[in-house]
Write a structure and sequence with these properties.
By secondary structure, the chain is of the alpha+beta class. The chain has a domain at 38-184: Double Stranded RNA Binding Domain (2-Layer Sandwich). It has four helices and eight strands. It has helices at residues 91-104, 144-153, 169-180, 191-206; strands spanning 47-60, 63-75, 80-88, 107-109, 121-125, 128-134, 158-162, 184-186. The longest helix is centred in the C-terminal third of the chain and has 16 residues, at 191-206. It is elongated and about 100 Å long.
Length: 217
Amino acid sequence: MTTTTPTTNTPRPYSNNRNTAGAGGQGGDRRPRRDNKAFADRVKDVDQKILDIRRVTRVVAGGRRMSFAVSMIIGDKKGVVGLGTGKGNDTALAIAKALKDAKKNAIKIKMTDKHSIPYGVDAKYTSSKVLIFPNGGKGLVAGAAIRDIAVISGLKDVSAKIVSGSKNKLNTARATMKALSTISTKYVFGAAAKIEAVASDAAPAAEVKTDAPVTKE
């Protein structure tokens, strides 16, 4: 008569890294998750405003994958304004991408002394069409996304109107930026600081004086 000894399941040692399965389930170490704070490339002296944030669901073979889409504008209330969009698995990453895109698309509006625009402009983007024109000191008369862009850019004595039936905030914002780009120039963050640094480095070299007497041959 043969006897069998019961087998006991020995627990595996605990690991702090929960994601130990690599590609194909063969095991392996996965690199640590990226910190979203590292992607929050903040800009000094620049205001930020989120126009719209949406949760997007994509149907794939394994089920549904959810992500977030963010539309953001930035500005310094001195004529600089930018519009950007970003997508990510969480809101922090989507906002960081939108901020980076807004910095890349920033423009500098050629404003008058009264924080207005020199003449009226209009533009159309997809189904959204906007009109922006100076109003002679009546203040800011605008709504929806146009008002947000005007406030964050520093425009005051302007009027704006949406002449289309579109209710899409992003399309209205893109139409507004397209209209303002006709009276604007491209703005690069950090370019002014680099120019000042080069000028400060070159200034002392030009002011070098010597006390040695001048001899004539």
